[in-house]
Fold this sequence. Notes:
The strands form 3 sheets. An 8-stranded parallel β-sheet has the order 6-7-8-9-10-11-12-13. It has a 5-stranded mixed β-sheet with strand order 3-2-1-4-17, with no helix packed on it. It has helices at about 5-10, 15-20, 130-145, 150-160, 180-190, 215-220, 240-255, 270-285, 305-315, 335-340, 365-375, 380-385, 385-390, 420-425, and strands at about 45-60, 60-75, 80-85, 90-95, 100, 105-110, 165-175, 200-205, 230, 260-265, 290-295, 320-325, 345, 415, 430-435, 440-445, 445. Strand 11, helix 9 and strand 12 form a beta-alpha-beta unit. The model is unreliable at about 1-30 (pLDDT under 50). It contains 14 helices and 17 strands.
Amino acid sequence: xxxxxxxxxxxxxxxxxxxxxxxxxxxxxxxxxxxxxxxxxxxxxxxxxxxxxxxxxxxxxxxxxxxxxxxxxxxxxxxxxxxxxxxxxxxxxxxxxxxxxxxxxxxxxxxxxxxxxxxxxxxxxxxxxxxxxxxxxxxxxxxxxxxxxxxxxxxxxxxxxxxxxxxxxxxxxxxxxxxxxxxxxxxxxxxxxxxxxxxxxxxxxxxxxxxxxxxxxxxxxxxxxxxxxxxxxxxxxxxxxxxxxxxxxxxxxxxxxxxxxxxxxxxxxxxxxxxxxxxxxxxxxxxxxxxxxxxxxxxxxxxxxxxxxxxxxxxxxxxxxxxxxxxxxxxxxxxxxxxxxxxxxxxxxxxxxxxxxxxxxxxxxxxxxxxxxxxxxxxxxxxxxxxxxxxxxxxxxxxxxxxxxxxxxxxxxxxxxxxxxxxxxxxxxxxxxxxxxxxxxxxxxxxx
Length: 448
């Protein structure tokens, strides 16, 4: 009998019963997109905003989500008041009954090297290719991408904004081929969007910290807007697990930075690397709450007892896991880690590059996949699955009471053509406007 995970893996995508039967999805009416794309006011009203206010229950089972239309008063980039109806003489704009949801957070993406924004280009075949083969391909490709990398990064940021993502963590190549050029171009793209988009940068030695001898370049990058030191597969790429990890952590300690390492290795060497990194954090208080394991596929290979023990140590040291919610032969134990107190972040990784062509740049896709793999298809499970796209910010708390938005919150949200969070997650409902710090940064609203 084929289970749900096997079905997803075989098809390589997400399919719903409605799609199988050819049924038309049910969405809220699409808003009129002939309005304005800029709000030139620091203090204004956004009317006709649909907010979640509670849940409907049948006994102990959540069977629906209650909503109500409100007016948000926005001043100085924050929500100054939440009104039941428009009031006063402030400038008015209308959300046209769209649902407001918390802004999305893409905490693992590569903005610096992408085919996005250019002509269609599928990756070359990967069958039989090692990670070193892929690195060799990249060494040829990077000089071709660098002349347009700033423009493509900007277009990728625009794509993220259109899906409601206003915060990201981008890995950026530091390698002998591009030197610091990829970082310089990314910084220019981010500077042009500084009012629209918040982004941390991980200095990423894609070709291996030791293998490509970039310790000096990595250190040079630390004064160029970098917030985290990256790393990559210390055994498979650098061939010296302890030396590679020690070098990565030393850069972070010397420059007072966080760490975010790509760790794809799912072999016993990968498990050993995870243990070594936890040991290192336990021995260095300055690293506590500042280390992220990106991908960390080896966690899916551990038996229950070993995983529980390591997860407990990770939680105690504030070590987080960044995931793209992968499907494949092994499904990551994300819920187990979360239950043990490990902070989970998610990202879309690559939209289209020489590694993969399948990214959409849409964090709601990740919430949809999380619900299918880990949560469930009922109203409450779908609604709660939105956490992985928003960094644990949800409109309703576990008791079904509204906790977001609240007066005083930053005025950041996305307007969605859906009736509730559950529908948004299940149907990947369209987003039509994105607000960040009180500014309309993507899409349109109507004047009221």
